[in-house]
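Section 5: illustrative case.
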């Protein structure tokens, strides 16, 4: 059972920045494409960024140019640098594989005030 532990969320004003981290307890981390997802109240969970095992990245249009995903395979960790945050970025953020494992972490709350 893969365990995913997200951290780094918080309350920030619009225009501010946060850096999220996620540690995955799996020996296959380095060969898995990883993604950051978010779920806002009343909305479905959505994939906002993903990174291939080799480091290629892709972003949802809503975060392109503001968010940067990266990974450290030696630490089994994926990061999400979020800059120029907007109130509409408010959500619980989760990481998982692009091909998702069955279990999700607790997520980390990001709240952006206007």
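Designed sequence:
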């Amino acid at each position: 059972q893969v365990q995913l532990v997200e951290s780094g969320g918080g309350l920030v004003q619009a225009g501010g920045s946060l850096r999220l981290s996620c540690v995955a307890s799996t020996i296959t981390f380095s060969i898995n494409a990883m993604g950051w997802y978010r779920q806002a109240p009343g909305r479905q969970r959505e994939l906002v960024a993903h990174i291939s095992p080799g480091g290629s990245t892709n972003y949802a249009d809503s975060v392109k140019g503001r968010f940067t995903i990266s990974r450290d395979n030696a630490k089994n960790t994926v990061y999400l640098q979020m800059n120029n945050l907007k109130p509409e970025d408010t959500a619980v953020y989760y990481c998982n594989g692009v091909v998702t494992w069955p279990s999700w972490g607790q997520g980390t709350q990001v709240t952006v005030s206007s």
